[in-house]
Amino acid sequence: MDYQGQLSQLLSSSDEANVLLALEMAKGVPETDLSELLMNYQELHECLIGEVVGGILKAAHIIALNQPEINASNRNLTAIPNCINQLKNLRKLSLFDNQLTSVPETIGELTNLRELDLGDNGLHALPESIGNLKNLEKLYLAWNQIDELPASLTCLIKLSELSLRNNLLMEIPDWIGDLKQLRVLNLSENSIASLPSSLGDLKHLKRLYLNYNLLTFFPEGLRNLTRLEILSVYVNELIELPDWLGDLESLQELYLSGNRLVALPDSLRNLLQLEILDLGNNQLSTLPTWLSVFKKLDSLRVGDNQLTTLPECLGDIYTLDLLDVRDNPLPLSEVEKIDKIIDISHYFF
After folding, report:
1. Which of 153, 164, 251 is closest to 210 using CA atoms?
2. Alpha-carbon 275 to chain mean position
């Protein structure tokens, strides 16, 4: 490594002594030109952290940028400097709640990044270079205007959390199934009418959020998500549920409100780990008597359906703490019947 390379390395250290040493060494060697590097640090500091008072860059400013985590949320940023690739130590970067419409390709050089939050901006697309972030584990892209995903995302082989909530996506590419380490996937609040069967290849997925889309059915491949603990599909256009849904025996929370369901498949009785079941705002006219098999159920919401009767088996769910039956055509006698046989903290009728 040449002399200037050594200086650059010292300057990028998070250790104050190293940064001060680099600045002193540079003073004693006139032919060493660190001016561009220092100008970049000043630009980055003013963008990501705050003003450099008097325009004089100090060691403290550089050290602040050399830390593994930078939170530049809510700073009204409209652009990110290309020289962001200088921040090689970054492991966690938040640019949440700004006014960014694009991200420079140089962000792909931050190969130590583990977590990147670009949520709540005005992004229309992502740079192809984002696929170079091989160590990225969490990527948050919610509340943007993204309508297409770059295929380079398939290179994020360590990605465990991906949020694309509230964008302009109409379809999800088949290669989503290549993100084998995903544990959490949020596709809510888009305009997705169907899902690729390749989602079923995400064998480690534990939480899947599909709320506020245009789904009318589940692809067969989803039956392979046997580790799924939370499935949230409220406010879609589901008319019926597949029998294989009962194969997802790890489910603890199932949210299906705001669809057009008229009945429940008997296979749901296999979901013995269920703690929350939300069936509100559908077209159910009866509830199955097998609900009593849910020995861990804490919350049951069936409000805003077409129920005229309630099964007495509800009294056998001893863990139940919340029962919501509001906005159903239930006669008072049914409401009083259940009130007598259940002992819960929250009963809404």
Report:
1. 164
2. 22
